[in-house]
């Protein structure tokens, strides 16, 4: 009797263990959460015209990193590879995390990589959209093209190196801005206004140069030679004066403000002599 009970007990234990094993296996299967590849594709969203395959895989990895999307939380990795005979379309292989199960493992993305044969559209800068009509640039040092250009480029950095000043009206205090010669990606023109800062310390030629001041032993009686001698002696006048008349008999010349020069006024008559060696030659 004892032997029979022992056998029955052993059989009971074996049956119970088997039941537990079957039960656990069923439970594991039930815990695998189903994910459809269609939902994965939807969660990934648009990936279009990236530089290359590496850029696509970088974008896919970024989709998974710290994701809050419930579908992507169950995805371990997403890896793209070129579709057969294509340089722009890819097939993405998805791998599920433990506890998740995919109905399919791949989906396609067409146009994920930029076609090398296409050029991205460019948008030209329009000068008349960047600079408003009659926009004012105040208190410039002078009315020279370089000064006006520097003021415009300082205010509108997107135009730097792409524009030029093509005309200046000093009376109306206006200037025309156009695309620089040879510049690309920029179109249009615009008229601007400017003001020149009033100088409180104008140079007075007749205070710098004394009347009939003499400049001796010049190489010749040419305006450029006389001008160079005057500017060498009075450096504050350099680039601001011109010789407007020369009397070779009286050996006199008239000094005036250069055309377009600002911050300088007055005139003066000077005397000069030409080197004897130059005269003899």
What brief labels describe this structure?
alpha/beta; 17 strands; Lipoprotein_mollicutes-type_CS; four-stranded mixed β-sheet; rod-shaped; Spiralin-like protein; signal; 281 residues; 31% strand
> What's the gyration radius in Å?
43 Å
Number of domains: 4
Q: On the 0-100 scale, what is the average pLDDT?
A: 86
For the record, give the distance between the C-alpha atoms at the N and C termini, rounded to a whole number.
154 Å
If strands are numbered along the chain, what order do they take across the biggest sheet? 7-11-9-8
Organism: Mesoplasma tabanidae
Keywords: Signal
Protein name: Spiralin-like protein
Structure description:
- The protein is α/β, with parallel strands linked by helices and 281 residues long.
- The protein folds into four domains: 1-28; 33-109; 125-196; 203-280.
- It is 30% helix and 31% strand.
- The protein is built from eight helices and 17 strands.
- The chain has helices spanning 2-31, 37-44, 53-64, 127-130, 145-155, 205-208, 223-233, 276-280; strands at residues 33-35, 75-82, 90-96, 100-102, 106-109, 125-126, 136-140, 163-169, 174-179, 186-187, 189-196, 203-204, 213-218, 241-247, 252-257, 264-265, 267-274.
- Mean pLDDT is 86; it is low at 15-28.
């Amino acid at each position: 009797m004892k032997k029979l009970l022992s056998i029955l007990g052993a059989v009971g234990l074996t049956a119970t263990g088997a039941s537990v094993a079957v039960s656990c296996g069923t439970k594991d299967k039930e815990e695998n959460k189903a994910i459809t590849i269609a939902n994965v594709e939807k969660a990934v969203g648009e990936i279009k015209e990236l530089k290359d395959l590496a850029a696509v895989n970088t974008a896919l990895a970024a989709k998974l990193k710290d994701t809050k999307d419930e579908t992507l939380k169950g995805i371990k990795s997403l890896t793209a590879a070129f579709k057969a005979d294509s340089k722009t379309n890819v097939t993405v292989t998805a791998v599920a995390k433990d506890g998740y199960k995919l109905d399919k493992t791949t989906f396609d993305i067409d146009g994920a990589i930029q076609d090398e044969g296409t050029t991205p559209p460019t948008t030209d800068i329009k000068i008349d959209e960047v600079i408003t009509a009659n926009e004012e640039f105040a208190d410039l040092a002078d009315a020279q093209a370089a000064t006006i250009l520097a003021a415009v480029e300082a205010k509108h950095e997107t135009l730097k190196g792409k524009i030029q000043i093509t005309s200046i009206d000093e009376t109306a205090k206006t200037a025309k801005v156009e695309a620089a010669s040879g510049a690309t990606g920029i179109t249009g023109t615009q008229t601007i206004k400017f003001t020149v800062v009033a100088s409180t310390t104008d140079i007075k030629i007749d205070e710098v140069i004394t009347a009939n001041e003499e400049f001796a032993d010049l190489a010749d009686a040419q305006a450029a030679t006389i001008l160079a001698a005057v500017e060498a002696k009075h450096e504050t006048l350099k680039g601001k004066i011109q010789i407007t008349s020369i009397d070779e008999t009286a050996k006199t010349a008239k000094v005036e403000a250069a055309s377009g020069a600002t911050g300088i006024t007055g005139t003066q008559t000077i005397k000069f002599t030409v080197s004897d060696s130059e005269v003899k030659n």
